Amino acid sequence: MRIDILTLFPEMFTGVLSSSILGKASEKEIVEFHISNFRDFSESKHGTVDDTPYGGGGGMVLKPDPLFRAVESMSTDKKPRVILMCPQGVPYHQKLAEELAQEEHLVFICGHYEGYDERIREHLVTDEISIGDYVLTGGELAAMVVIDSVVRLQPGALGNQISAVEDSFSTGLLEYPHYTRPAEFRGWKVPDILLSGHHANIEKWRLKESLRRTSMRRPDLLEKLELTAEMKKLLAELEEEKKLEDKS
Ligand code: ADE
């Protein structure tokens, strides 16, 4: 997979893309990162990339020319997905991460200004993505979030492939609680069932705890899920337990 990043602040990416899973993925050539300063694609002598808005008003607007030239300079066989990071974009979620992870080439456009000339949105960009309902000073941090979530899904990027499959959101449920040694820490014990070695019971316990956590923290996720017969049974058990707790 090739990932291009167009930004006015390339230095923001250096630590993130060279550390941990992303750093290893690029060392192993699972992903190739190309970071460009789109100021280098400005035709003006001073490297101008923005201008005042037509019609007046405050703030500056990113000009179309440097960004079009930057994307068009990329030599690729297939048209890449060109992603504009902005608060007006579609809300980011795991399904979109899984979809983007299938692509061979992604281009991220990160702006730091009041706005983008609308022709960038209409004629250059294929996707607009927001990472949440809040406003960042620029698209760089948002692009890093998306890149991280996409690269970790590439085959071989995570040491243990199982961990991506069992992620919260991939299954549609939040993850069950995890424990490791010691079996007792400051008087707090690991649930007996996890020490029992009985795999079928452990799986059932994990599913029940995933359902418990999801119904408490993210009931909206449960509503979207097609429940299996086992899930329905476990949810009914949780409901009974809650009723008993409420009574006592
Ligand atoms: N740029 C500024 N805020 C953003 C957000 N919430 N998501 C994506 N890009 C952004």
Automatic annotation (TrEMBL):
<keyword id="KW-0808">Transferase</keyword>
<dbReference type="Pfam" id="PF01746">
    <property type="entry name" value="tRNA_m1G_MT"/>
</dbReference>
<dbReference type="InterPro" id="IPR023148">
    <property type="entry name" value="tRNA_m1G_MeTrfase_C_sf"/>
</dbReference>
<dbReference type="InterPro" id="IPR029028">
    <property type="entry name" value="Alpha/beta_knot_MTases"/>
</dbReference>
<dbReference type="InterPro" id="IPR029026">
    <property type="entry name" value="tRNA_m1G_MTases_N"/>
</dbReference>
<dbReference type="InterPro" id="IPR016009">
    <property type="entry name" value="tRNA_MeTrfase_TRMD/TRM10"/>
</dbReference>
<keyword id="KW-0819">tRNA processing</keyword>
<protein>
    <recommendedName>
        <fullName>tRNA (guanine-N(1)-)-methyltransferase</fullName>
        <ecNumber>2.1.1.228</ecNumber>
    </recommendedName>
</protein>
<feature type="binding site">
    <location>
        <position position="111"/>
    </location>
    <ligand>
        <name>S-adenosyl-L-methionine</name>
    </ligand>
</feature>
<dbReference type="GO" id="GO:0002939">
    <property type="term" value="P:tRNA N1-guanine methylation"/>
</dbReference>
<keyword id="KW-0963">Cytoplasm</keyword>
<comment type="similarity">
    <text>Belongs to the RNA methyltransferase TrmD family.</text>
</comment>
<dbReference type="GO" id="GO:0052906">
    <property type="term" value="F:tRNA (guanine(37)-N1)-methyltransferase activity"/>
</dbReference>
<feature type="domain" description="tRNA methyltransferase TRMD/TRM10-type">
    <location>
        <begin position="1"/>
        <end position="224"/>
    </location>
</feature>
<comment type="subunit">
    <text>Homodimer.</text>
</comment>
<dbReference type="InterPro" id="IPR002649">
    <property type="entry name" value="tRNA_m1G_MeTrfase_TrmD"/>
</dbReference>
<keyword id="KW-0489">Methyltransferase</keyword>
<feature type="binding site">
    <location>
        <begin position="131"/>
        <end position="136"/>
    </location>
    <ligand>
        <name>S-adenosyl-L-methionine</name>
    </ligand>
</feature>
<keyword id="KW-0949">S-adenosyl-L-methionine</keyword>
<dbReference type="GO" id="GO:0005829">
    <property type="term" value="C:cytosol"/>
</dbReference>
<comment type="function">
    <text>Specifically methylates guanosine-37 in various tRNAs.</text>
</comment>
